[in-house]
């Protein structure tokens, strides 16, 4: 029987010891001091307990008899024609934060954007969203947003800024005049910038990415003569070879990549095939967790392995190889697999090392992947930054060689290794102007601040990939005295038009003719606004001849000492989302840590250096807590950048440590690998908030998986326990019949990549509170949906298993028959419901739920200074969904299958005199999933997708031996690995705490 485990303590001590530790820690913190409303952490006698219970019931009775506070509603004097109070409107628009693009639909309720959904009519982003996209709506209402133009710490006027900028642009002055921006994918914005440069030829435009991918573009320039990032078609790749590229997490376009990746991971009896995914990496990424074969290696060994694979493929094709360092890793099987999958494989690297990217480009060229899985027609427009241009600008600033610096959507004072010096230089320039929608370290050091709109307030367009054009339209009037970046540029160029006029004119002149539409431009324009995107068809195929002679290796092999790899987290990425509480409290998919960054070290290195979790060490002068991470490559450690912001807002300030200071430069490119670091113990400790041991399911069978080889022989492989459990079901409950709807959810674990998008989507839809680091440490996180991560096999290179868990909506729900006030009940449509107004907080239901999916409101999280995140001011509360009750202290809550959405669609169908269609009702998690791993519907409908999933041989239910009859089913995980052909179900069915 294979052993699965969730933490190193459990791996060493077993589930019983771990569970006992959790219970002991919980008991220490369960006593509530009602007078101070604080956690006392003291022991209590039986008499004290009875006093507490009696007081609680009395308090509940008093509270229930009080009158509800008066809430005033102001009616429309003149109601806008397009608004029906209480009914949502939807607007197609575009999300782009400078690093990640997604075509979206904004849900607007009574003039307030409250939810972001995927735009299914714009396939460029895969028909899903990411956690960052879902959380972006909260940033619209962020109190840290810039609210008006400013000069230093004082207010300013737009006229004052305009006059200064125009005068500086016009007057010849010594020094460079520079516009520094993040990557711009808007064709209209590029035209506006080019027009401004035509008027003022001295103005330079430099693009800066906080986390650079410049080596990819440079490598393609060397090999193909074109500065580009190709399009990646993971849906066409049968073999994926990745070197430190977290393409399911944060690399380039993770939403699009996850969607394509999942299509090739879907396994059916009719098509029992799937892609093979091999991952070489130093740290343990979410992409590595999904790989079939994962190999933890040092960065230097990763390069040596890639070079050996390159030479292996080249020698088979009669092409000259490279002079490479010795490598003791066997790669013959990989070389053979690549040669078998020519024009059907993808090789990628997440490194910003030019030599790595040159070898990757050469390998893909030799294998014929360009034009097949790599698209040179549909090149990507993201990550346009030039490390060399930015380095030259930094040098000019330090030498007082810049007379005008205009910065848009960048934060180099935070993200540049010499950020402090950069800040002093900005302030010392003749004129520096910052344009952005939120306060930042760079804004603080700039002489003037010209606040930009949030993307949900602004007009814009985007061309995320070549041949695809998308529109961005405002969903709300600007909340503050802000002005769009494009309007500022137009103003400084003396133009009378607005950005809306410029966009419309550009589309009429450049894009409308490409459509070949017979309709008028006005009608075509309105259609594009509704759809959100236009894709140009019929482009001629473009090919470039590779020049493999440009590929060479000059660097040495392994160096002495530890190697540090810097990466971006799936939550706050490079720090631009640091003030978003939804993302700060989002557990890392692998480590399950939130509210901090940390130094991940391997199990062997921790043993040798006598380190344990939460020990504080110094790394090249930076103090950072340690997390011992199974699967981390020996001789390496990993650290997330983006933390340690000091000027972001009340949520993000001083959370974690800023690791950007460790970034180095190599051959003109930013390097996120630091060789030869020194780790020193300080003797101090620092607590980390982890959800790793929350909501354990008490040593019961949870994880089921099999191999593709076994599945081909037996579709029930790995799921024989399900057959045995179903055969021995007996119940004292009467049989339940659902005459109408019977709602159910199916989750394909082969398509779920654990990206956490569904978690944030659920938070946004259901008004789930943020509780903060201390409460997370106390196991009181409020998320209705969690992604459980299990390890198996070798502690130094474990396999991972990711599983979304929410309320299972059991037809024989053990929570329902223990509630003393019948606050939790079963609906006639199979939903397990909670009547908040009736709940008195006994928590009997929580104790009787074997899935640990019910949450208790220990405190009042609204209008409470102890939880000062986003529910304490009127502006931030505009994000709340009015269809979902905001829960109060003492109430139990949990997943409702988004019952408000079910009722909305049922009412729509009733008013239209029709039946609900399959797939019409989609809970928030289902609608936003980029991989379509979740399927929701009526299980009474035999033709519904969810019914077909439930009837699949791979389907099983959690803890089905308890006969709770869950309405959530899981499809067994299938891995494309070489494995033994075993029929024993215990090989695939595991027990886990």
Features:
alpha/beta, Dimethylsulfoxide Reductase, domain 2, Barwin-like endoglucanases, globular, 993 residues, disordered C terminus
How would you portray this structure in words?
By secondary structure, the chain is an alpha/beta fold. Among the domains are: 18-65, no CATH class; 215-380, 3-Layer(aba) Sandwich (Dimethylsulfoxide Reductase, domain 2), CATH 3.40.228.10; 559-690, Barwin-like endoglucanases (Beta Barrel), CATH 2.40.40; 705-727 and 754-986, 2-Layer Sandwich (Alpha-Beta Plaits). The chain contains 29 helices and 46 strands. The strands form 14 sheets. A seven-stranded mixed sheet has the order 8-7-19-18-17-9-10, sandwiched between helices. Strands 31-23-28-25-27-26-32 form a seven-stranded mixed sheet. β5 (101-109) and β6 (112-118) form a beta hairpin. α4 (131-140) packs parallel to α24 (757-766) and α6 packs parallel to α17. The chain is globular and about 90 Å long. The protein starts with a strand and ends with a strand.
Supply the helix-strand structural class. Answer: alpha/beta
Overall pLDDT level: 89
Residues in β-strands, percent: 15-25%
Low-confidence stretches: 22-41, 60-65, 980-993
CATH third-level topology of the domain at 705-727 and 754-986 = Alpha-Beta Plaits
Instruction: Tell me the span between the first and last alpha carbons.
Output: 15 Å
- Cα Rg: 28 Å
Q: Please report the total strand number as a whole number.
A: 46
Spatial strand sequence of the major β-sheet: 8-7-19-18-17-9-10
For this structure, the quaternary state is single chain
